[in-house]
Design a protein that fits this description.
The chain is built from 16 helices and twelve strands. It is of the alpha/beta class and 544 residues long.
Length: 544
């Protein structure tokens, strides 16, 4: 029903069409309502028409039933009569089943092409949110990123970040003086959170080849925009990973796409299903980041549509930027529900004769209160609207259908095989290996030097011992020689004495001679003695 400038949403009871102006589609929007009120069908119908107008779409398939958008609906489907009746009620005379070109993605690489990004591209802020870190731990994480950047170390996957954190802990004293306190306790806490993230499958999200955001923005050979469907049924078991991934994707779109101002139609439309997960327990810094991205990404031609059960799940600063609104029924069972109804009613531009608060609780399945931006930028008065029926299948695909469509994907083979190039883990491991080898060499050299020193010491000790033993031996030899000399001297003296003594015969002869002489002497002494004396004296004087 809509022309090329708009997307037909549905019609009021009196046949007034409600059309989303393509030039205002990047002013963002909200699709809200309780479970089972028709949000999924509304989302699917809008995505179909964006694609038909050549606008690429990204949406998360939380329950697994949005994948059916890739297949045309069937007249044999149990909902066929309901859809045909609704098409007639809203005045879609040309309504017919048709398929929509789709590319399937999956962070875990099972139900679609893997989506990866690097740890560096995710950044410390989103990672801290993903791991639920406190301010101190987030500060340590930022130091690790800063240090890795300065050292030229690529942080591509979780092992890179784990190795970088371990390196920071090992060099905590040096880093603390340069960047601030880096406690091993904080590093340990971050490492534990990384292990939990890895256990949830987060390790599959970080790595290469990283997603080229331009692969989300393209058209098929018929000029229809690709509908990028993220398999999020398993991902919802890790709500922080889901919310952080979608916020990262928004940030990547904002940083990558050029400024286009107000294009005739969006460059990409982004549907954020289960949007409350983005804001649950989110610190103010993160909420501010979301607000900034949502506010500024409009100029990149990207429209962001939050899909949630309760409109109060969206912070006011962000909700105020959502110009296109489709509000399905809410139930006033609790005080919170009543508050949500009042809040939703107050956000719409009043319409004469319509009690918005009352109407929200009375809406039937497939009905919604709709207010869309008009060509002049003003919101249209809220109108109770019957939503148009989808043209594609409402429901999941079979494994065979999904595999066939995946094989025909324009990015088939581009992301399916992971790449692990040299990055922080390998470089730090190599450095650690070099350090360990150097330490081993130093240790071996120290052992060798010690052995040589010990050998030299032993040799010196042995030489000293030998010297002492030789000196002792010399002294002993000298004492022995002296003793020998003395002994020989005593022997010679004894021998001389013995030699000087007369023999026995000589003693007997001398004795006999003395006896004889004594006898003769006594006889002649008197006669001869005087003569002898006189002769001797005379000779003496004569010689004078």
């Amino acid at each position: 029903m809509a022309d090329d400038t708009g997307i037909f949403i549905g019609a009021t009871a009196d046949g007034q069409p409600q059309t989303l102006n393509l030039r205002r589609a990047n002013r963002h929007g909200l699709i809200a309502g309780a479970t089972g009120t028709g949000k999924t069908v509304t989302l699917q119908g809008i995505a179909e028409d964006f694609s038909a107008r050549g606008v690429p779409v990204f949406l998360a398939d939380v329950k697994g039933d949005l994948a059916g958008i890739a297949m045309a609906g069937s007249p044999t489907d149990k909902m066929d009569a309901t859809w045909a009746e609704r098409a007639a009620a809203v005045g879609e005379a040309d309504w017919a089943y048709t398929d929509t070109p789709a590319i399937f993605w999956d962070l875990f690489g099972q139900a679609g092409h893997p989506i990866r990004t690097t740890v560096s591209e995710m950044g410390p802020l989103l990672l801290a949110r993903l791991m639920g870190l406190n301010e101190v731990q987030e500060g340590v994480l930022q130091i690790a990123f800063r240090y890795a950047d300065e050292q030229g170390l690529l942080l591509l996957d979780l092992p890179d970040l784990q190795a970088m954190l371990a390196h920071c802990a090992a060099n905590a004293a040096e880093l603390t003086t340069r960047y601030g306190n880096v406690s091993k306790q904080s590093v340990g806490a971050i490492q534990r959170q990384l292990l939990q993230l890895e256990a949830q499958g987060g390790d599959a999200f970080f790595g290469e080849p990283a997603l080229d955001i331009h692969d989300f923005i393209g058209t098929d050979d018929q000029g229809r925009g690709w509908v990028n469907i993220l398999a999020a049924d398993r991902l919802m078991a890790s709500p922080k990973l889901y919310a952080t991934f979608l916020l990262w994707l928004l940030s990547e779109l904002f940083e990558t796409l050029p400024e286009v101002g107000d294009p005739d139609k969006p460059v990409l439309v982004f549907f954020f299903d289960e949007a409350h997960l983005l804001f649950d327990d989110a610190p103010k810094a993160l909420t501010d980041k979301v607000e900034q991205v949502v506010r500024l990404i409009r100029s990149k031609g990207v429209g962001v549509y939050f899909v949630t059960q309760n409109p109060v799940d969206i912070p006011e600063d962000i909700a105020g930027q959502l110009g296109n609104r489709v509000q399905h029924a809410l139930r006033a069972f609790t005080p919170r529900d009543q508050k949500a109804i009042r809040a939703a009613a107050e956000t719409f531009r009043a319409s004469p004769g319509l009690d918005v608060g009352e109407a929200i609780t009375e809406l039937k399945v497939g009905e919604a209160l709709v207010s869309l931006l008009q060509p002049d930028g003003a919101p249209s008065p809220v109108a109770r609207t019957l939503i148009k029926p989808p043209r594609s299948r409402v429901g999941p695909l079979s494994d065979k259908e999904r595999a066939l469509l995946r094989s025909l994907s324009p990015v088939e083979g581009k992301y399916d095989v992971a790449i692990n190039r040299e990055s922080a883990q390998e470089i730090l491991a190599a450095k650690a290996g070099d350090s360990a080898a150097a330490a081993e060499r130093a240790k071996a050299e120290a052992v060798t030097a010690k052995a040589q020193a010990d050998a030299a010491k032993a040799a010196a000790a042995q030489a000293a011992l030998d010297t002492r033993q030789q000196a002792a031996a010399d002294r002993e030899a000298d004492r022995a020689a002296a003793a020998q000399a003395k002994a020989e001297e005593r022997a010679r003296a004894a021998a001389a004495r013995e030699a000087a003594k007369p023999s026995m015969a000589e003693k007997m002869f001398q004795s006999a001679a003395r006896s004889a002489a004594s006898s003769v002497g006594r006889q002649v002494a008197g006669t001869f003695g005087s003569q002898l004396v006189r002769g001797l004296l005379g000779g003496l004087f004569k010689g004078r």
